[in-house]
Amino acid sequence: MKDMEAMEKEQMIHNGISTFPLLPLRGLLVYPHMVLHFDVGRDKSILALEYAMDHDELLFLVTQKDAQVEDPGMEDLYRAGTVVKVKQVLKLPDKSIRVLVEGLVRGRIDSYTEEEDGLILADVDIKNDEEPERTPVLEASLRVMMDSFESYSKASRKISPETVI
Fold first, then answer.
1. Whole-angstrom Cα distance, residue 117 to residue 44?
2. Spatial separation of the C-alpha atoms in residues 70 and 48, rounded to whole Å
3. Contact 61, 82 (CB under 8 A)
4. What is the pLDDT of residue 129?
5. What would the pLDDT profile of 46-96 be if each residue is shown by its tens digit?
6. H or E element: which one contains 28?
7. What are the pLDDT digits (tens) for 14-37?
8. What's the rounded Cα separation, in Å, for the pair 6 and 13?
9. What is the C-alpha separation between 27 and 66, in angstroms, rounded?
10. Among 76, 59, 67, 66, CA closest to 124
11. How far apart are CA 121 and CA 114, in angstroms?
12. Phi then psi for 157, rounded to 5 degrees?
């Protein structure tokens, strides 16, 4: 039954506003189709993760404006983020949790409610990405951007040639 609920929820995220547990990230961005692991240690974040695991394994991740803030409020968070599917959870010896997630779709916080225990549930307006019209100006901008990225990657030597391709 949990698999059926997750499938229904994944279908729902393509239409309008859905509610997800909110998990703030420090210094990380997650995009749709991206697979990433990170550690969760703050109580509110653990609550959001546990809620997701008990329900549909979906979270809404947003980035903090200032990574130094230990207990961010809504004013400390960007409104745009990504709905993710939790793929794997691993409890670490230091009581933090390592999570593997896969980005599904972009979204923007429409409203939120904070539960008594500190869990934040966000009503998220799903942003289905549409392919922009391929105008000559867009094509030229993409070429300039790709040339600039290639030059940067050669100069920095931290980006593999496969990434550039």
1. 8
2. 16
3. yes
4. 66
5. 999 999 999 888 999 999 999 888 888 889 999 999 999 999 999 988 888
6. none
7. 557 789 999 999 988 898 889 999
8. 11
9. 8
10. 59
11. 6
12. 60, 15
